[in-house]
Amino acid sequence: MRAGSAAGRPGSPPPSLAPCGCTQPPRDRAQDAAARGPPGLRGGGPRRGECVICYSAYDLSGHLPRRLYCGHTFCQACVRQLDTPAQEQRWIPCPQCRQSTPTPRGGAAMLDLDLAAFLAVKAEREPARGQPRPPAPLKGSPAVTEQPAGLCPTLGPQPRFPPSG
């Protein structure tokens, strides 16, 4: 490691952590760009659905997509890292346009969700509503895998019911 690298500075995250402080290892941006294809076709930036700071995919827990007042979206973990005090007020400076967003009383977790990104993540995680789900067995009862012997005409007598009249 070189003496002037950012990883050696006091207060900087260890090299094994992403810039947002999560435990996901940072991705190699050159490999990401190569995987996305030529810049003219898909763009050289992060894929839709991932944070432009740490390149982590948005999820439904620590990397929720949070929208700043300027309209730019970052994961909640990175927004927490951007939150800085200035003149007795906490501000979140946007790393893309530098517009400052006042930090809500509850912190970065109280910023608005980027609803489009959130719903896209949620749709990936949940089965579609139109598709039937396999029925869940009732608690305490075994799953029925065979028809009971008394109900099959080839296996035994059938129950007799009185004729309806």
TrEMBL record:
Pfam families: zf-RING_UBOX (PF13445). Keywords: Metal-binding, Zinc, Zinc-finger. One of its GO terms (molecular function) is zinc ion binding. It comes from the Eukaryota. Residues 1-42, 124-165 are annotated as: Disordered. PROSITE patterns: ZF_RING_1, ZF_RING_2. Residues 1-10 have a biased composition (Low complexity). The keyword Transmembrane helix does not apply. Residues 51-98 form the RING-type domain. InterPro entries: RING_finger_domain, Znf-RING_euk, Znf_RING, Znf_RING/FYVE/PHD, Znf_RING_CS. This is LOW QUALITY PROTEIN: RING finger protein 224. It comes from Carlito syrichta.
